[in-house]
Amino acid sequence: MNKILVTGGAGYIGSHTSLELLKAGYQVIILDNLSNSSEESLNRIQMIACRTLKVIKGDVRDKSRLNQLFKEEKIDAVIHFAGLKAVGESISVPLTYYDNNVGGTVALCQAMSEAGVLKIVFSSSATVYGIPMHPPLVEDSKLGVPANPYAQSKLIAEQILTDLTKTGENWSISILRYFNPVGAHESGLIGEDPLGVPNNLLPYISQVAVGRRPELLIFGDDYPTRDGTGVRDYIHVTDLAKGHLKALNRLENFSGVSVFNLGTGQGYSVFEMIRAFEKASGKTIPYRTVPRREGDTAEYWSDTQKAKRELRWKAEKNLDQIALDAWR
């Protein structure tokens, strides 16, 4: 495999994965509508890698654009990131999330099938395990009821991809369930800089540290955890990106569908994250505790043995490195 289509490649995880692909010698084509990302990230990817990539501004739901793209380019495989990811927003506008995340996956797979491109790595989420979660979560854990339309859209997309392997076509599919991606590239040139109010803990801490927000809100300090705050499996985004390359390589000699957790196999609490960021930045992070949010669980983290065994991948970066790179 040489030429890879990356949908949503200008986004947070997509940009870091595109960079790792370039560094590994792949030709990269990015399809992104830039609805929640910036062209600047694409410039910086190329600057860091000292290589160029092809960028097509377009929507993954645009079937005619996809057909044209597959006709013009000899694409070997697809890594599919394109979609919306804000849990709270998905509750407010569920149809938008199903349209983007499910509709986009359907349109992409139709175009791939027609073009005979049957290798895909899919960006899924640990949220498909539903509520309640009982850590450590393994890939064959019984899936719970998704807590929101975002999680449901990922689960539906997983089912669509699984069903494709039963059609008689020789599909090769890796489904990657992320835990909590955080951090940034060590250069400090690309990272997570969300528009509006951050949905995730570390970008929120970062914005408090640089003075863009007055304080961090901690949603509950009375959980049955080691310090009362929620515990999550935070994985460095560069480690996560490298996991996609391992999953892509595996598709060369594999048919069917495989599911892999990408996490660290351990959990960190909110207070531990704050302390690590204070150490990295030299800043004090003011915070205020507010009531728990509905649907939040006390703790969850991954079991990553399958990824270690079958992908020969594991997370390498620790919490201090995560905080330092995020601060850069």
How is this structure best described in words?
The chain has 328 residues and is an alpha/beta fold. The chain has two domains: 3-182 and 234-262, Rossmann fold; 201-233 and 265-327, UDP-galactose 4-epimerase, domain 1 (Alpha-Beta Complex), CATH 3.90.25. The chain contains eleven helices and 13 strands. It has a seven-stranded parallel sheet, sandwiched between helices. Helix 6 (149-164) links the parallel strand 5 (119-125) and strand 6 (172-178). Helix 1 (12-23) runs parallel beside helix 2 (39-49). The longest helix is centred in the N-terminal third of the chain and has 22 residues, at 94-115. The two termini are 34 Å apart. The mean pLDDT is 93.
Question: Outline, from the CA principal axes?
Answer: globular
| SS class | alpha/beta
Helix tally equals 11
State the helicity in percent bands: 25-40%
In CATH, the architecture of the largest domain is: 3-Layer(aba) Sandwich
CATH fold category name of the largest domain: Rossmann fold
CATH superfamily of the largest domain: NAD(P)-binding Rossmann-like Domain
Compute the separation of the termini in Å: 34 Å
Give me the side-by-side strand order of the main sheet.
3-2-1-4-5-6-11
Question: How many domains, in number, for the residues?
Answer: 2
The quaternary state of the protein chains shown equals: single chain
Strand element count: 13
Rg over CA atoms, rounded to whole Å, is 19 Å
Please report the first level of CATH classification, the CATH class of the largest domain.
Alpha Beta
Uncertain stretches:
none
The SSE string, one letter per element, is: EHEHEHEHHEHEEHEEEHEEHEHH
Mean pLDDT: 93
Strand content: 15-25%
The biggest beta sheet, please?
A: 7 strands, parallel
